[in-house]
């Protein structure tokens, strides 16, 4: 049933269509001719269907985060196109960006310092509203509290500072912050890594709730195929800067086409249960 | 390119940069040596103008810089207006004296600080450690100027040592050993001042980097193997703690030279300090530039020495 | 668990240390700011009959052996046989009174007043730190000189830190060739021994100018020579703050450069700036003292700690009048306070970053 629904939804035009996207990082040192070249993205083609949860899976260094940054307009690709709601956004002008940015929001991995340790919870959530000048004063506070409640945090905690929250709670804060601007597309970059199993499940449940409430399209980025396999409608597998496989979850799990996908799957199947049961909680 | 060559080129670039900086400062400055002369009614404005053009002061900055650079390659380092002589002839002796003073002071300061620092790092929290830390923190806040004046006061009151200058007046008549003794007694006050001023910093660094190393697992392991304490401290811990200390050696040159300038002026040591002061007063441009360049040269040589020691002490640097 | 507890107790003592050092410094600066009230005399008023009077002794017991609760002094009179030698004339006691009328001054430089904290009746005089070659009260001169020396140190620190913050932020935030060139120049300033640089810069500036001009010139020179170290440190902090994910997130909300700098980047530099300030103030006070001592700074009759110490350059003063070292004591006390504060700030900074 679910798979059928997913295919039906996928039949609608894609929300995001990425075409031949390339990005190369060059690092050079002054007074020296040697330079380091990394091809983070090589001719990436991918589509994100609307109202679905698409998972982007790959090993670390495979270019997932670069793709996410390009989608979130935080990086400019060297070549290629990104179409969002019928507009090419990869080379949008500054004035266009202002209206575009709220529609695509990104949730960063918490352990990499996604929340400013000097801010209180309320300040963290209020930041995007402040920047976009959506609301101010009393209303801002009210909206902040609403958002906290929405992600399952008590509004009484609004004045606690970020480091007083647990890992899972911080992830909720980051999601609340991203939701503040009512985006169309939510990109979650490794949002579940570093959390213990129970918390991962809780965050995934939260994600399911808000997806329905806000009719959100989600892109979940993870290195853990088995984890996203439980929730994603579509799965795209990345390897060495290219998308090697993209299909519905069922297709990917049951008949993977690319050898690397098969490797990833084999790895999860053999060690998953034993390994994950013993993994200590990170909180 | 190997490591030392790179550092050498870097040092030369810094020297060139420093000389350009000097000329830029001089160019921004409103007055010059000849403005002071102009105040003298006995010298006609024409003479001043002629002198200015003879020394090239009427030329724009880049031209003057090139002229100066050429004279550096000729070994003259510009021309002193006040002494009417090439700057190098003034610099050479003075720089040697400063080098003697700072060299002896550096050597002694490290000679004292390293074993002392290692000892208190091995016995943290004991009486001697607390006493050392307390006294160094007081010593740190006594400026070199006050130290030099205080020492001078003590010596003058007790007549224990000769005061002022580098040698006694009858130096030339002395035999070889008496000469050395005479020089050494004159060295005592300036060297003591510099050692007292620099010892606290070095001591604290030795202590903290040794304490860091002594906490490391490999030291605990060695301790477990039953190595003697002296061997543990000097053969295991000290080489591991050496890196930051060697960098400190390079850094501390600047403070030592600045301190030395003051001490030289106060105790009348005929080094670069009094020369710079004199040149500053009489606005003797090229002497000022020359002294600043010599001090920079010392600084860079000190850093190069530190780099060489680093190369010898740390195999990781060789891999670069 | 155990280490956590130890950590908190350590940071608590550090907090207490910070507070203690800060309080002592506030007190010391208060003494300087209200120097006019505390000083019994004027810094410039000369008393040519009493050059080099040793510090006046406070007595509690008089010649008859009676104990007085209120301390008193004897009048110092010059000994007939010796030059600049004094003895106490024990004929009459002059008790020390609090809140006495004296020469006019401005409280904290604002309100005119003539009430002084303490004083004795004429003809007795009270020289707490002796008098100098013109018979001027050293204690008053140290207090007034503190305004100049400390003022110069604080203002020069302000200049250095502003320059350092500006250049360090630009360097760390915009990176690339701007960063490269600013840091190369900073390296140049760091490699030059600071006193040589200071003297050289002073050498290129006019010698004969008014005291006010000299004061500000001195501050400008000292302040602009020392920008490199704060700039380097600020750059490091900005560089690491800039690459944090919350800055990227902020960009994702459409934040401008100025917003990111204001809200996310600059607050991280305050710790470094505070530590640097506590280190630079004493260093710059010493720089002023040094330049004035060498005759390149402020000149007489303006009192600054450097000018006061410059008296010691005369051999006979150095040998005979130990109380001329008193300004050095003031210098050392202030340096101690600032270095203790810098130490506490530094420890706090480390405990935050680790």
Describe the model.
The complex is a heterotrimer of chains A (283), B (320) and C (354). Chain A has 283 residues and is an alpha/beta fold. Chain A has a single domain, classed as Rossmann fold (3-Layer(aba) Sandwich). Chain A has helices spanning 2-10, 64-71, 94-100, 121-131, 138-150, 167-179, 197-214, 225-229, 249-254, 259-278; strands spanning 16-28, 35-48, 53-57, 79-84, 87-88, 104-107, 185-189, 217-222, 234-239, 242-248. In chain A, α4 (121-131) crosses α5 (138-150) and α4 runs parallel beside α6. Chain A is globular and about 55 Å long. Chain A starts with a helix and ends in a 5-residue tail after the last helix. Chain B is built from 13 helices and 2 strands, in the order ααααββααααααααα. Chain B has a two-stranded antiparallel sheet. In chain B, β1 (79-80) and β2 form a beta hairpin. In chain B, α1 runs antiparallel to α12 and α10 (229-267) runs parallel beside α11. The radius of gyration of chain B is 24 Å and the shape is globular. The model of chain B has no long low-confidence stretch (mean pLDDT 83). With 354 residues, chain C is α+β, with helices and mostly antiparallel strands. Chain C has 2 domains: 53-129, no CATH class; 141-353, MetI-like fold, CATH 1.10.3720. Chain C has a 3-stranded antiparallel sheet, with no helix packed on it. In chain C, strands 4-5 form a two-stranded antiparallel sheet. In chain C, α9 (257-293) packs antiparallel against α12 (326-353). The two termini of chain C are 17 Å apart. Residues 1-9 of chain C have low confidence and may be disordered. Chains in contact: A-C, B-C. The interface between B and C is large, with 53 and 46 residues.
């Amino acid at each position: 049933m679910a798979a059928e629904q997913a295919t039906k939804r996928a039949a609608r035009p894609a929300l995001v269509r990425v075409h031949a996207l390339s990005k190369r990082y060059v690092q050079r040192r002054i007074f020296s001719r040697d330079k380091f070249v990394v091809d983070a993205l090589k001719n990436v083609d991918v589509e994100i269907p609307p109202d679905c949860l698409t998972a982007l899976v790959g090993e670390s260094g495979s270019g997932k985060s670069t793709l996410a940054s390009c989608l979130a307009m935080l990086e400019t690709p060297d070549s290629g196109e990104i179409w969002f709601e019928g507009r090419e956004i990869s080379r949008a002008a500054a004035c266009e960006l202002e209206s575009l940015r709220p529609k695509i929001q990104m949730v960063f991995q918490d352990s990499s310092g996604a929340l400013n340790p000097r801010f209180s919870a309320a300040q963290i959530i209020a930041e995007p509203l402040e920047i976009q000048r959506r609301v101010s004063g009393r209303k801002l506070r009210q909206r902040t509290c609403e958002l906290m409640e929405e992600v399952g945090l008590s509004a009484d905690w609004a004045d606690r500072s970020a480091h007083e929250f647990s890992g899972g709670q911080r992830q909720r804060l980051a999601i609340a912050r991203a939701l503040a601007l009512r985006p169309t597309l939510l990109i979650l970059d490794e949002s579940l890594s570093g959390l213990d199993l129970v918390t991962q499940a809780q965050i995934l449940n939260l994600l399911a709730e808000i997806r329905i409430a806000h009719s959100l399209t989600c892109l979940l980025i993870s290195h853990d195929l088995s984890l996203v396999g439980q929730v994603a409608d579509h799965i795209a597998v990345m390897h060495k800067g290219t998308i090697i496989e993209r299909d519905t979850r069922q297709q990917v799990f049951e008949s993977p086409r690319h050898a690397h996908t098969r490797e990833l799957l084999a790895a999860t199947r053999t060690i998953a249960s034993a390994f994950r049961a013993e993994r200590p909680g990170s909180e | 390119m190997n490591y030392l060559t790179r550092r050498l080129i870097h040092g030369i670039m810094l020297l060139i940069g420093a000389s350009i900086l000097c000329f830029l400062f001089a160019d921004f400055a409103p007055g010059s040596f000849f403005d002071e002369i102009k105040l003298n009614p006995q010298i006609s404005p024409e003479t001043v103008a002629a002198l200015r053009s003879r020394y090239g002061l009427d030329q724009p900055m880049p031209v003057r810089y090139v002229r100066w650079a050429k004279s550096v390659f000729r070994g003259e380092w510009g021309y002193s207006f006040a002494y009417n002589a090439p700057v190098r002839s003034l610099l050479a002796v003075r720089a040697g004296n400063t080098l003697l003073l700072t060299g002896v002071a550096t050597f002694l300061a490290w000679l004292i600080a390293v074993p002392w620092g290692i000892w208190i790092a091995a016995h943290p929290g004991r009486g001697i450690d607390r006493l050392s830390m307390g006294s160094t923190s007081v010593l740190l806040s006594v400026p070199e100027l006050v130290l030099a004046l205080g020492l001078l006061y003590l010596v003058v009151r007790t007549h224990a040592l000769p005061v002022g200058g580098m040698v006694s007046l009858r130096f030339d008549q002395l035999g070889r050993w008496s000469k050395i003794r005479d020089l050494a007694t004159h060295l005592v006050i300036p060297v003591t001042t510099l050692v007292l001023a620099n010892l606290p910093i070095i001591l604290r660094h030795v202590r903290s980097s040794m304490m860091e190393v002594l906490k490391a697992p490999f030291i605990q392991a060695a301790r477990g193997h039953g190595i003697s304490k002296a061997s543990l401290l000097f053969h295991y811990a000290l080489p591991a703690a050496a890196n930051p200390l060697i960098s400190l050696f390079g850094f501390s040159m600047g403070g030592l030279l600045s301190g030395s300038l003051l001490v030289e002026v106060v105790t009348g040591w005929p080094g670069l300090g009094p020369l710079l002061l004199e040149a500053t007063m009489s606005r003797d441009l090229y002497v000022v530039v020359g002294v600043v360049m010599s001090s920079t040269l010392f600084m860079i040589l000190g850093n190069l020495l530190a780099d060489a020691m680093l190369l010898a002490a740390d195999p990781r640097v060789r891999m670069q | 668990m155990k280490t956590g507890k130890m950590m908190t107790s350590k940071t608590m003592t550090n907090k207490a240390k910070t507070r203690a050092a800060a309080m002592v410094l506030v007190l010391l600066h208060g003494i300087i700011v209200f120097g006019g009230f505390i000083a019994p005399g004027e810094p410039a008023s000369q008393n040519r009959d009493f050059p080099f009077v040793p510090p006046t002794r406070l007595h509690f017991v008089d010649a008859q052996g009676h104990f007085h609760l209120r301390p008193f002094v004897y009048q110092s009179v010059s000994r007939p046989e010796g030059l600049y030698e004094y003895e106490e004339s024990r004929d009459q006691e002059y008790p020390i009174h609090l809140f006495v009328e004296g020469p006019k001054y401005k409280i904290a430089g604002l309100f005119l007043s003539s009430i002084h904290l303490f004083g004795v009746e004429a003809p007795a005089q009270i020289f707490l730190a002796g008098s100098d070659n013109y018979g001027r009260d050293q204690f008053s001169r140290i207090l007034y000189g503190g305004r100049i020396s400390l003022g110069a140190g604080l203002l020069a620190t302000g200049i250095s830190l502003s320059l350092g913050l500006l250049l360090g932020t630009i360097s760390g935030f915009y990176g690339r060739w701007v960063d490269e060139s600013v840091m190369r120049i900073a390296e140049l300033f760091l490699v030059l021994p600071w006193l040589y640089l200071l003297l050289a810069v002073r050498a290129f500036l006019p010698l004969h100018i008014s005291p006010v001009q000299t004061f500000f010139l001195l501050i400008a020179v000292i302040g602009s020579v020392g920008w490199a170290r704060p700039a380097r440190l600020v750059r490091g902090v900005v560089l690491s703050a800039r690459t944090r994910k919350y800055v990227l997130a902020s960009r994702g909300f459409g934040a401008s450069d100025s917003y990111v700098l204001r809200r996310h980047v600059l607050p991280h530099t305050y710790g470094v700036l505070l530590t640097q300030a506590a280190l630079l103030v004493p260093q710059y006070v010493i720089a002023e003292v040094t330049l004035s001592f060498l005759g390149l700074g402020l000149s007489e009759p303006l009192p600054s700690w450097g000018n006061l110490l410059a008296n010691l350059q005369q051999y006979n003063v150095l040998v005979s009048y130990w109380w001329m070292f008193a300004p050095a004591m003031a210098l050392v006390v202030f340096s101690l306070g600032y270095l203790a504060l810098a130490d506490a700030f530094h420890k706090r900074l480390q405990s935050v970053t680790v």
